[in-house]
Amino acid sequence: MLILKNCRELLTVKEDAKDLIGLMENASVLIKGERIEKIGSYEDLIKFIDGEDFEEIDCSGKVVMPGYVDSHTHLLFGKSRVDEYVASLTNSSVDVKKIVKLVGLEASIYYTKKATNEELLSSSLEKLNRMLLSGTTTVEIKSGYGIDKDTELRQLRLINKLKEKTPQTILSTYLGAHFFDVNMGKEKYIDFMVSEVLPIIYEEKLANFSDIWVDDGYYTAEDADRFLGSCLDFGLVPTLHSECYSAIGGAKVAAKLKAANIGHLNYLTRENASILAKNNVVGIVIPTTDFSVKHPKPFDPSYMIEEGMTLAIATNLNPGNWFESMDLAMALACRNHKMSEKYAIRAATLNGAKALRIEKDFGSIEVGKYADIQIRDSDSYKNVVYKIGVNEVVQVIKKGKKLFK
Ligand SMILES: [Zn+2]
């Protein structure tokens, strides 16, 4: 057993917390095996364990809160796109393609296809390890850098391998519909995914979720309805990238199919926010991408929250948007999008778990849930969004195990 003793601030982030974060001062947490056994005063916990062996961590100068759930990433990819990114920095009118031949998704696909399995695994593990050091204990990872059969399946199989190699909980998503094979055309490419790829994903249990990009120039709402509906037949829970650059009906499809989550939402209307809320579709907002692409229409969480939506914050880590830190994503959500620090903490923990439909076991510090906890050397939880670029995490507990010496 493990006791986190006398936490200066304990943030439970439990479901019914009136202040969103469930702040307790000087409380202690008892962990038995992988799960949280009891929360209370140190004296009560000592009485409760009644002479059994235990280890303790002194948390008197610490903030103790749930590990982060990063519910939207594309972290398994080939080479970085750093040259493209820096070329775009100094002059917004520069034609990046003149400086860097391959850009955008095309570049991500090219470099991912070229990379060996070993390269993809080791670079992904490096990222996951740094994410762990900054408090992220659960990560969703998408395919989508093949737009074919072999690379997409290779990505999903490698994501499954990562599950054995990292302490973090990993969930995987088939994003074959990130774009489409231009030689086949959209219609035929959807048929191809359904007849050629989905049966293998189902057979080998390669993914938890399906995903599609709905926007002008990508897929339509009708395409999404057909593709995600077929994915449901193969046991994949629908999710979407949508309303990032246009509002062409993705949100309504998400509501109709009861998608687990929908990401980006820059162009989401208030009416559709209400429809998503009624259908329990979690909105994933991505402050890092709005920052890195200087989005012309930054997402606005205020009316989404007013309409009753549950919002999660994610990094969207990908080669065009290299963010690993949830602290930073939260700081941007607060400063650039007027989100409160308390909501940001909930959005990065419990609401992330809800976006992945794992909130029964993850996302908060509550009796019965897995002990996925970050311990921060800090005098206030508010530092999470205040001390920019400072990593206060000194210990991470994953399923009851201390990960740092
Ligand atoms: Zn994405």
Automatic annotation (TrEMBL):
SUPFAM superfamilies: Composite domain of metallo-dependent hydrolases, Metallo-dependent hydrolases. One of its GO terms (cellular component) is cytoplasm. It holds the Pfam family Amidohydro_1. It is an enzyme of class 3 (hydrolase). Keywords: Histidine metabolism, Hydrolase, Iron, Metal-binding, Zinc. InterPro entries: Amidohydro-rel, HutI, Metal-dep_hydrolase_composite, Metal_Hydrolase. Residues 271-401 form the Amidohydrolase-related domain. Transmembrane segments: none annotated. GO terms for molecular function: imidazolonepropionase activity; metal ion binding. Pathway: Amino-acid degradation. The keyword Hydrolase applies. Its EC number is 3.5.2.7. One of its GO terms (biological process) is L-histidine catabolic process to glutamate and formamide. PANTHER family: IMIDAZOLONEPROPIONASE, IMIDAZOLONEPROPIONASE-RELATED. This is Imidazolonepropionase. It comes from Peptoniphilus faecalis. The lineage of its organism: Bacteria, Bacillati, Bacillota, Tissierellia, Tissierellales.
